[in-house]
Design brief:
319 residues; six-stranded mixed sheet; 7 helices; single chain; four-stranded antiparallel sheet
């Protein structure tokens, strides 16, 4: 009997221990740790910035340069109206150009964009950080001369628009530091010896010349209608003489001077000077591929390019 009581007591103790373990498991039940919410405000701000500038860089498929962890990116928009097939850079003030960044990979059509990767920490041969760059583009049309865009602080630009107006290459962009629209057109005009006053005067002279020519023609017709047959012959002779004079005046206009300049392509620069006279200003550069000297002769409403061949300066294009 004693053994039976002991056995019953042991069974009660075991039951109590079992209940105690169950209770412990209930009170310390492991709750899954909730997944922390990751803040994406920075990413959201980046998307908003791209939308505010109207640039979706993910859709730009034409790439120049190599993307690295340290590289900066610049959007190049071709608003020159021509097809670009070569793109070069150099630190402003230096003579040597980089290799072509396009390298026959694509043609940047008019209105298209390309993404250019460059090293924002690049230094020149003296170990000085490069802050300003010159850019140069070549066109698929061999009759079009290379265009230069100078003194650009690339780190202050997100999108660079290459443009052309009356033969003058320039750029526009929105400054990242000032948020202001910038245009280099006036600087390019000043470098080429062109001013707004001169352009306006040329246009007015052209209009006055056309008006005077028309008035003289109308007057001659009235005189011819009222005169006799003898005076008709005299008037016809005078009309012919006046017409020749008007033609000579036309040779001095911008369009005829450009035509005369185009007629000297392939000839020496002396032929250019003989046909058009001296340029407003002249600038020289070095061709990146051949190392030959290239000249740029800036006239009122067009530019003439030359290149050194066999020790002689030869006209290569007019634009």
């Amino acid at each position: 009997m004693k053994k039976r009581y002991i056995l019953l007591a042991g069974m009660c103790v075991m039951g109590m221990l079992a209940v105690g373990c169950g209770s412990k498991e209930t009170t310390v039940e492991i709750t899954p740790t909730p997944t922390p919410t990751i803040e994406v405000s920075g990413k959201g701000n980046m998307v908003e910035m791209q939308q505010s500038t109207g640039i979706d860089k993910t859709k730009i498929t034409k790439i120049m340069g190599t993307k690295t962890a340290a590289s900066a990116e610049l959007v190049i928009t071709n608003n020159t109206g021509l097809e670009i097939d070569c793109f070069y850079t150099r630190p402003s003030g230096e003579d040597d150009w980089s290799d072509d960044y396009i390298q026959d990979k694509f043609i940047l059509q008019a209105g298209e964009q390309a993404l250019f990767y460059y090293d924002p920490a690049a230094k020149d041969e003296n170990g000085v950080s490069i802050t300003k760059y010159d850019l140069k583009v070549s066109y698929t049309d061999d009759e079009e001369s290379d265009c230069l865009f100078r003194n650009l602080t690339l780190s202050d630009i997100e999108e660079l628009k290459l443009k052309m107006e009356d033969g003058i290459p320039f750029v526009t962009y929105t400054s990242l530091s000032t948020k202001q629209e910038v245009s280099t057109l006036e600087d390019a005009k000043a470098r080429m010896g062109r001013t707004d006053d001169e352009d306006s005067e040329i246009e007015e002279n052209s209009e006055d010349s056309t008006s005077d020519s028309q008035n003289e023609s109308d007057s001659d017709e009235d005189s011819n209608s009222d005169s006799s047959s003898d005076s008709q012959e005299s008037s016809d002779s005078e009309d012919s003489f006046d017409s020749d004079d008007s033609g000579e005046t036309g040779d001095d206009s911008g369009s005829d001077m450009r035509t005369a300049a185009e007629g000297t392509i392939g000839q020496s620069v002396d032929a250019l000077n003989g046909a058009c006279g001296g340029a407003n200003s002249v600038e020289y550069d070095t061709d990146a591929e051949s190392g030959s000297q290239i000249g740029y002769y800036y006239y009122d409403d067009f530019t003439v390019s030359t290149i050194e061949q066999d020790g002689q300066e030869v006209v290569t294009g007019v634009w």
